[in-house]
Design goal:
The structure is a single chain. It contains 29 helices and 36 strands. It is α/β, with parallel strands linked by helices. The strands form 10 sheets. It has a 7-stranded mixed sheet, sandwiched between helices. A 6-stranded mixed barrel has the order 31-35-32-34-33-36. Helix 8 links the parallel strand 14 and strand 15. Bound molecules: ligand MGD (2 copies) and molybdenum atom (MO).
Length: 883
């Protein structure tokens, strides 16, 4: 009974949560559903019949028959006393309507005025572009300290004893110079205004909030964006989102300004002799239709190529590949999954059945051992990275395989800092230890797996000692890692581009699958093989058929030709489509004449940029459909302004196969249009509008459901209440969090003995350093979006990381510009000296055109077409001293 009302809740519920579930509000300042309750503020005191003392509702669990009062004169007096005490130390504020924060709201409710012994004014810190700190408003609830430690695992906020007072202070001279990663969790939880979003307009007033999915990475956090006068001004994570559970990272939380950037391209542009000219949509569409029609008439449909966008929705990408196949008549359609996790998709599909992660992020909390291979989780997938770090802090053994000492490697039980490009020997050696020590799961192997004896014979050759010599790590460490992984039960692996972006990327993924199969870590919770997919919708773009060989649902064309021809009412092209880099090779050779690029800056991000440039320059027609001018559009003939995913409805598919809704937060900026609308308009202008009559996302999605049985049960209606993971074949199916729980589609699966073929890219006297490339937290890929936000202040430039010893040897100081020279080209960027990189290695980020890191990388590729971004032999020279 709460306040005389009967409340039914599950055992183990707190009094506070029970009251809330009954719509009874108990005041509190230290409670946050993301944190363990502490009872510190004592505002939530309640009276429990027959109890000797008042109890804090947040820490007291209910029991059957409990009789609780939340509002008695005595309780109100207690609360008033607490608030008066806090108000004495709180600066006098101009009251606002509505009150600026929960604390001020309580002061108003209880009629208490703030102001008195205000703490010294040295407590304002405005160093950070996003977060304003004013600790004179701190009320010692310590929610910031707790959320930074217990959710983000960053430990930025500390309690400092100042004699009379305990104050909260960042670990560093200022917040900017602290380890803060700007996830915004402390601001989100702060109830008193001590921590605030700096850029929220002072007189913000009520904002309109729209729930949608983050436009950045493949984690797929759900966020609410707050708008005012048609502009996005704030974001907050959704508390009950299954993926992020009330958390976010700096990009989702703060990096939304790009949508309103002054240099958004908002009108169609056509280039003639004199440069770009704005034209009306109608003319732009007619022009594109004409030029594509001309190329097809002269050279045939396979002289045209199309690239879908991993940043756009499933519906956009579905129509993009349908346009390539039905309107243009070519299978030359691909997307950036090619340069990224195509090896994961191929490895998983060929060995297990589906080209996607086997498990879900929630398995991180169930795993008894974690293996992270070539993934910089805290920077590339920060919300997942924080969960992995929390698991490690709870004592779950963590193995990290990465040449660099990344943040997560610093937290690891075992860090194998291998030489770039040597994953395969290392994973083979781990498998060899598992078998030698008899740590394999015999029951699982007997039930599901073939080829064990053959694999055993093969892998015996890969002793830890042999691998150690190749990989540059000790044999003992390899053996220990194998024992820890195999001893986990369940053990979960996650992997990134450090495994896939190699000439043996697919084989690397297969070797990791071997290890999971050997130890029975497939088909059970807390286990599996899980590629951390890149962009918001890269899994979706490829799954929708932006892949030369696959139709929507990931089926090979020849397996499903007749089914799709019937559904689409038109024949599918017969010729084999070209993958992304093969399209560019064909352009260089004069066979590909037109390229239609939807949301993808290939000139900046493809390897061997000089060669990409030559290929693009050889085209008759280059069409770019993007939000901004890019390196690629500098060579384009037509620019079609797309609207961002804040400006449209649809769905994204995250790295765990979860379909989530994308909702329109603001109206399309300027004349920009959704990718679907633009593509359908071109189809119509080419006289093939029949399959493109409807561009409403829900109608397109229903068509996708009809052609791909594994998502048939996922409707927009169901997605209103949260995401769903495929396979989800019927509308009453709950979705699938863990694949292969009931075995494998084709019965048994096989272990794969995989020969090791080292890369041709080797260091020598002229190119003595091994360069690997990758990401940084604050910039995202081509940086078209992040560079147009204050993230740019947090990380303005690409950097080349070198070991301090190498820096000293080359006479380099932190910040000096260096020239990085490979057999293909030159990049120029400032150097950073760090112990994260081993001597002889170098690491560069690739986000900006000024550094042009992809001038040096190699377009050698894996059989599925993924380039070797992770291994380049280079020489490093000072580029002149900076003043
Ligand atoms: N902040 C931010 N987040 C992003 C992105 C971004 O640009 N910025 N991009 C998104 C995209 S598209 C993607 S695909 C993902 C990628 O996310 P990640 O997979 O984390 O990407 P990378 O940083 O490229 O590479 C990961 C790690 O591989 C290591 N590595 C290099 N060579 C080897 C090797 O031979 N073996 C092993 N085991 N490791 C090696 C590198 O040291 C690096 O730490 O991130 C997504 N998230
Ligand atoms: N050296 C090196 N190079 C790399 C990598 C590496 O590790 N090292 N990683 C590679 C990887 S994994 C990837 S995925 C690529 C990424 O390379 P890109 O795909 O080029 O990078 P993104 O920044 O994700 O940009 C895509 C484009 O989409 C636009 N965009 C955003 N939303 C929309 C939309 O709704 N519609 C349309 N039409 N456009 C939109 C953006 O403005 C941007 O120009 O880079 C690759 N390049
Ligand atoms: Mo990617």
């Amino acid at each position: 009974m709460i306040d005389g009302r009967e409340v039914n809740v599950a055992a183990g519920t707190t009094v506070l949560a029970s009251a809330r579930s009954a719509g009874i509000d108990i005041p509190t300042l230290c409670d946050d559903p993301r944190l363990e309750p502490t009872g510190a503020c004592r505002l939530c005191l309640v009276e429990i019949a027959a109890a000797a003392r008042l109890a804090t509702a947040c820490t007291t669990l209910v029991h059957a028959g409990m009789d609780v009062r939340t509002q008695t004169p005595e309780l109100e007096a207690e609360r008033r006393g607490i608030l008066e005490l806090l108000a004495r130390d709180y600066p006098a504020v101009q009251p606002t309507t509505p009150p600026a924060n929960p604390f001020q709201q309580y002061l108003r409710e209880y009629g208490i005025a703030a102001g008195g012994d205000v703490r010294p004014p040295d407590q304002i810190d405005e160093s950070h572009p996003y977060i304003r700190v004013d600790m004179s408003r701190c009320i010692d609830c310590f929610r910031c300290v707790r959320i930074c430690r217990d959710v983000q695992a960053q430990d930025v906020w500390h309690l400092w004893d100042r004699g009379f007072d305990t104050v909260v202070h960042p670990a560093g001279p200022s917040l900017l110079e602290s380890p803060c990663v700007a996830c915004g969790a402390c601001v989100d939880t702060c109830p008193s205004g001590a921590l605030e979003d700096r850029r929220l307009p002072a007189a913000a007033g009520p904002l309109a909030w729209t729930r949608t999915t983050c436009p950045y990475c493949g984690v797929g956090c759900e966020l609410e964006y707050g708008t005012q006068a048609g502009r996005i001004v704030a974001a907050r994570p959704v508390l009950d989102a299954p993926v992020n559970r009330g958390h976010a990272c700096v990009k989702g939380r703060y990096a939304f300004d790009f949508a309103h950037a002054a240099d958004r391209v908002t009108q169609p542009l056509v280039r003639d002799g004199g440069g770009w000219h704005s034209v009306e949509w109608e003319r732009a569409i007619a022009h594109v239709a004409q030029r594509l029609t001309d190329v097809i008439a002269r050279y045939g449909p396979d002289a045209v190529g199309v690239l879908g966008s991993s940043r756009a929705t499933d519906e956009d990408n579905y129509l993009t590949q349908k346009f390539a196949r039905l309107v243009l008549g070519t299978n030359n359609v691909d997307c950036c999954a090619r340069v990224c996790h195509a090896p994961s998709a191929e490895g998983l599909k060929s060995m297990l059945g589906a080209g996607a992660a086997t498990n879900s992020f929630e398995d991180i909390e169930q795993a008894r051992a974690l293996l992270v291979v070539g993934a910089n989780v805290t920077e590339s997938h920060p919300v997942v990275g924080a969960r992995i770090r929390q698991a490690a802090r709870r004592g779950v053994p963590l193995i990290v395989i990465d040449p660099r000492r990344t943040e997560v490697a610093r937290e690891a039980t075992i860090h194998l800092a291998l030489r770039p490009g040597t994953n395969l020997p290392l994973l083979h050696a781990m498998a060899s230890v598992v078998l030698d020590d008899q740590l394999q799961d015999d029951a699982f192997l007997a039930a599901h797996v073939d080829g064990v004896d053959e694999f055993r014979r093969f892998v015996r050759e890969w002793t830890p000692a042999r691998a150690a010599a190749i990989c540059g790590v000790s044999a003992e460490a390899i053996a220990r890692a194998a024992r820890v992984y195999a001893g986990g039960r369940p053990a979960m692996s996650v992997h990134g581009l450090g495994l896939t972006e190699h000439t043996q990327g697919t084989d690397g993924v297969r070797a990791l699958i071997n290890l999971a199969l050997l130890t029975g870590n497939v088909g059970r919770p807390g286990a599996g093989v899980n590629p951390l997919r890149g962009q918001n919708n890269v899994q979706g773009a490829a799954q929708m058929g932006c892949d030369p060989g696959l139709l929507p649902g990931g089926v090979p064309i020849e397996q499903a030709r007749s089914r799709f021809e019937e559904a689409w009412g038109a024949p599918l092209p017969r010729t084999r489509g070209l993958a992304l880099l093969d399209m560019l090779d064909a352009a260089s050779a004069g066979r590909l004449k037109a390229l239609f690029v939807v949301g993808y800056d290939i000139l900046l991000t493809n390897p061997n940029a000089n060669q990409t440039r030559r290929a693009l320059e050889a085209l008759d027609v280059l069409i770019v459909q993007d939000l901004f001018h890019t390196q690629t559009s500098s060579l384009a003939h037509v620019f079609l302004p797309a609207c961002s995913t804040f400006e449209k409805d649809g769905t994204f598919m995250n790295a765990e196969r979860r379909l989530q809704r994308v909702r329109r937060v603001i109206d399309p900026v300027g004349q920009s249009r959704s990718d679907s609308e633009i593509i359908a308009d071109i189809a119509r202008a080419m006289g093939r509008g029949d399959g493109f009559a409807h561009v409403q996302p829900n109608v397109v999605w229903d068509e996708i459901r009809r052609v791909w049985p594994a998502v048939n049960g996922i409707t927009y209606d169901r997605l209103e209440h949260g995401g769903l993971q495929w396979p989800c074949p019927t509308v009453d199916h709950p979705g699938t969090a863990v694949l292969y729980r009931d075995g494998f589609a084709h019965g048994r699966v096989s272990l794969r003995p995989i020969q090791v073929h080292p890369t041709d890219e080797a260091t020598d006297e002229v190119y003595p350093f091994l360069l690997t490339t990758g990401r940084t937290l604050y910039q995202f890929n081509a940086a078209t979006m992040t560079a147009r936000t204050p993230n740019n202040e947090l990380r303005p430039a690409d950097t080349l990381d070198l070991a301090p010893e190498d820096g000293a040897r080359l006479g380099l100081r932190e910040g000096d510009d260096v020239r990085v020279i490979s057999r293909r080209g030159v990049a120029t960027l400032p150097v950073r000296l760090t112990d994260a990189v081993r001597p002889g290695h170098a690491f560069a980020t690739f986000h900006t055109a000024t550094s042009a890191v992809n001038q040096v990388t190699s377009d050698a590729r894996d059989p599925v077409g993924t380039p070797e971004y992770k291994v380049t032999a280079v020489r490093i020279e000072p580029a002149g001293v900076r003043l």
